Structure to design on (223 residues):
């Protein structure tokens, strides 16, 4: 049986420890990700939030050496049996499945500090925002913003942008840095609310290299 990539350009990939049988995570693959996995022997996936191909562990070093690849009976789901280096989950846990649905309790603890798994603090912060968005609004400012909805989130972005501008106007370096961090955080909350990973913003900035600002404005006005 072959995968019909025209019909299913993106398919789920269940990842299982090849020795213990523990289910480690669920990711997605397109045709390129599967081909890279077959060529290299290490798991590659397609990130729906980043809209790009990625090698598992490319930043953290927690790679997955693929031992076996199985296709299900319908030809629309892949099972990867892997040797996992370090944790599979971005929280630093061995598996992404660590919350008991009935009791809402955590069944395992991190085996690695998640801060050590990220080269990019923006990426780390974005994931923390995603983790907290459905949390208790009385205990988390992030959860509180999400609970209030779009208008409150956008109002905070506008407020922080204004405060950043005032700090620049006052030529206060400390305040510029402080308010810049606040602005970036609230912009990331807005991106998370919209389901857009900051990597897609970076990709747009990369696209603009070599193009003058005037040309870019002209091209955007044609959209």
């Amino acid at each position: 049986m072959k995968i019909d990539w025209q019909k299913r350009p993106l398919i789920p990939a269940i990842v299982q420890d090849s020795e213990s049988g523990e289910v480690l995570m669920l990711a997605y693959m397109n045709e390129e990700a599967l081909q890279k996995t077959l060529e290299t022997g290490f798991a590659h996936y397609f990130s729906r939030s980043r809209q790009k191909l990625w090698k598992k562990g490319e930043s953290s070093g927690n790679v997955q050496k693929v031992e076996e690849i199985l296709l299900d009976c319908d030809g629309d789901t892949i099972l990867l049996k892997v040797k996992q280096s370090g944790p599979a989950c971005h929280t630093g846990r061995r598996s992404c499945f660590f919350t008991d649905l009935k009791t809402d309790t955590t069944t395992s603890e991190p085996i690695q500090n998640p801060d050590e798994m990220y080269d990019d603090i923006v990426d780390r912060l974005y994931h923390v925002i995603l983790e907290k968005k459905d949390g208790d609004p009385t205990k988390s400012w992030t959860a509180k913003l999400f609970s209030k909805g779009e208008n409150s989130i956008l109002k905070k972005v506008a407020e922080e942008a204004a405060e950043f501008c005032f700090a620049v106007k006052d030529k206060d370096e400390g305040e510029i840095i402080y308010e810049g961090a606040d602005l970036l955080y609230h912009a990331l909350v807005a991106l998370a609310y919209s389901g857009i990973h900051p990597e897609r913003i970076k990709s747009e900035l990369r696209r603009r290299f070599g193009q003058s600002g005037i040309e870019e404005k002209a091209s955007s006005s044609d959209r």
The chain is about 40% helix and 20% strand.
